[in-house]
Design goal:
38% of the residues lie in helices and 14% in strands. It is α/β, with parallel strands linked by helices.
């Protein structure tokens, strides 16, 4: 990260003039985030789990909850809850927390949303997503050997997604977006098409 920041300073001195976005899984080191204070314009973290066992089983990391929540507190300290828009209508500065709904409530959505409301703010901008689909080892024979993996081995159901959207209203969140449930396939790249995998 020090080298990236040094390179950004040189680029900015050379005329770079665009918002800098830090796209992260929120499993961040606080020292790194403090180094980025005043450098990053937009934080775009994913809050994946509210349970450490899920963080380890599905992402191979320890103490995900502690690290991710500390990271979000630091990002919020730097940005507050306000998104700053430019004259062109595009976001220039702020914090947007993404949350992907997982099958069988494995993301712990209610606990994560409670954390955001109580320790950050109900004014924080959220992006709630329905696009989960099983890939990689979850879809092969390894899944049959693991009950925990089998819990992830399907798309989410519409009722599971609606339940999380209802939580947003119940908890009084004020800002953000949610994907349409039936738009799941729109966000999945087709990597068999190596020329235009992201076409809609």
């Amino acid at each position: 990260m020090p080298q990236i920041v040094e390179a950004l300073i040189l680029a900015i001195e050379g005329g770079l003039n665009i918002p800098l976005i830090y796209n992260t899984n929120a499993y961040d080191d606080l020292e790194v985030l403090r180094l980025l204070d005043g450098v990053v314009d937009i934080y775009l973290p994913d809050l994946k789990y509210s349970d450490d066992a899920a963080g380890y089983d599905y992402s191979g990391v320890r103490d995900y909850v502690k690290h991710s929540r500390a990271a979000l507190r630091e990002m919020h300290r730097q940005m507050s809850s306000v998104l700053v828009y430019g004259d062109d209508g595009l976001i220039k500065r702020g914090l947007i927390i993404r949350h992907l709904v997982l099958p069988n409530e494995l993301a712990g959505s209610e606990e994560s949303l409670q954390f955001i409301k109580e320790e950050l703010s109900p004014s924080v901008t959220l992006s709630v997503m329905s696009q989960y689909y099983p890939t990689n080892r979850i879809n092969d024979t390894n899944a049959e050997k693991s009950e925990r993996l089998m819990l992830m081995n399907r798309r989410i159901r519409e009722r599971e997604y609606e339940k999380v959207l209802d939580m947003l209203d119940d908890l009084g969140f004020e800002n953000g977006w949610s994907q349409e449930f039936d738009s799941q396939d729109n966000y999945r790249p087709d990597f068999s098409d190596r020329v235009t995998p992201f076409k809609s």
